Amino acid sequence: MTRILFLFAMLLALAACKDDGPTASVETSPGGIAYTLLHMPEHEDVTIHIAWPTDWAYRPETNKATPVVGTQLILAGGADGYPAGDVGERFADLNSEGIIYVAVNDHVIGELTFERDQMDETIAIANAHLRAPTLDPMWFDRIREGTAANMAEAQAQPAHAGFDAARWAVFGKEPLRNALSLDEPGTFDELTREDVLVWHSETFTRTPQVIVVAGGLDAADAGAAIDELLRGLPDASRSVTQEAAPDYTARRILLHRPEAQTTTLSFIATLPATRLGGETEDLILIHALGGDDQSVLFEAVRTELRASYGFGAGMANYTRDHRILFLSGEVETAKLADVERVVRDAYADFRQSGPSGELERRKAPLAENFAELPDFVVDQARSELQSALDGFDAGRSFRLTDELQSVTESTLMDRLSSAFPDAQDFIVIAVSPDADALPGACVIRVPSEAADCP
Fold first, then answer.
1. What stretch of H or E contains 404?
2. So where does this one cross the membrane (predicted)?
3. Are 289 and 296 a contacting pair, CB within 8 Å?
């Protein structure tokens, strides 16, 4: 009898441990603000992630450098009771962290991470800077000039110039294009502190699109923290309209850069938005296509052309709705046309046959990453926030391992045939010191001319 009671007690203890594991729920703060709570009781740290929608990048009258400078200036430029430049040291003393950044031009995201016993002071500092930032003029000038210099340096690089040309080809004169490239004359020189004030006042409201709280905080404390963090912010004063009309018509373009030391080649085509599903398959497929030195593209270029360079693949977002697949690499100028052919043929074969080798081995790196995700509250919250913005149910970030297990050879092949572009559907962009290196291509001398290539 004693043994039976002991076993019963052990089962109850195990059940209690299971109940104490991470959970996800949709909650509402006392102030009426909805949020997702990832209750992770094993963590001392807490992180709050907030996504505010924005259409600043889509509107013709706005200065497109404003969010880039503004996201840095809000925390660095001071607030009532906090001198400019002071917040970094204060957060460091508290072992807290705060960042604000623009996410694919559709959202401004704020992340605040702290230890539970430092919550009140950390949130007070963040609220002051969100609610009434000083936007110190000297810090404004410093950040604007530094960002402009960094962009100019990047734009001088051939590979960067190639992607600028691609954006001209895809978006032409749409306002979103300059938000992506920040290369129109006057973008930084004409930016004023008043632009940042207007952007701040319309962006930071107490009605964001998504909020995620993760860590060792219950719903009562999490709700109170959100209300205090957003205290004093206004309700949204305008509706957000995010409309763009990209043109992914296949073209072959060569940007002639006589001073370039190397030639770069890129292929760009559209992929479905992540909100439509299939992202796990995409991760496996793109890594097999061009993720490392064992990938299809790398091996094709090395083997067929006996090249000393490789070729890779990846995916990126212009916006949440406009996602691209890109294949890219540096190539020998004299072999540019041959590399284009080899890459296109290798991609076509891959789309037809799929990745080789054991599927479980291809899943293994993702399985490890997903299994480790709950060890880091910030990474867990970021994953959950992105899933929420895509419209998935709360707690998806805890179910990524299940999604990965559901991937089969069949789902991979279905994804390749239904979502990946045909080999002839790519926009091809080369940047080369030889204007004749890609026969039949539309030759341009500055990225903006790509908009007129047929």
1. helix 400-405
2. none
3. yes
Per-residue pLDDT reduced to its tens digit, 266-318: 999 999 999 999 999 999 999 999 999 999 999 999 988 988 888 999 999 99
Residues 215/46, Cβ–Cβ less than 8 Å: yes
The Cα–Cα gap between 301 and 339 comes to 7
What is the value of pTM for the model shown?
Answer: 0.93
Residue 20: the pLDDT is 65
- Whether the per-residue pLDDT at 4 is higher than 70: the answer is no
Query: If you average pLDDT over residues 174-196, what whole number do you get?
Result: 97
Considering only CA atoms, which of 364, 303, 369 is closest in space to residue 339? 303
DSSP 183-202: -STTTTTT--HHHHHHHHHH
Q: Which residues of 130-140 are buried (b: 16+ CB within 10 A; e: fewer)?
A: bbebbbbeebb
Question: Which residues contact residue 173 at a Cβ distance below 8 angstroms, ignoring those fewer than 6 apart?
Answer: 451
State how beta strands 427-432 and 252-256 pair: parallel
pLDDT value at residue 170: 98
Distance between CA atoms of residues 46 and 40, nearest Å = 9
Closest CA to 279 of 106, 407, 393, 108: 407
- The residues facing 387 across adjacent strands are none
In angstroms, the first-to-last Cα distance of the chain is 85
- Which residue in 213, 209, 232 sits closest to 222, CA to CA? 213
Residue 121 buriedness (CB in 10 A; 0-12 / 13-18 / 19+):
middle
Give the bridge partners for 23, in sequence order: 39
Residue with tokens 């300059």: 178
| Per-residue pLDDT at 1 exceeds 60 | no
For residues 128 and 72, the answer to whether their CB atoms sit within 8 Å is no
Q: What is the Cα–Cα distance from 155 to 388, expressed in whole angstroms? A: 34
Q: What is the pLDDT of residue 310?
A: 84
Contact at 8 Å (CB) between 242 and 416?
Answer: no
Lookup: tokens for 122: 């950390």
Distance CA 92, CA 346 (A): 50
Residues 70-111 have pLDDT tens digits of 999 999 999 989 999 999 999 999 999 999 999 999 999 999
Q: Is the pLDDT of residue 433 over 70?
A: yes
Q: How confident is the model at residue 15 (pLDDT cuts 50, 70, 90)?
A: very low
Report the C-alpha gap between 122 and 100 in whole angstroms. 15
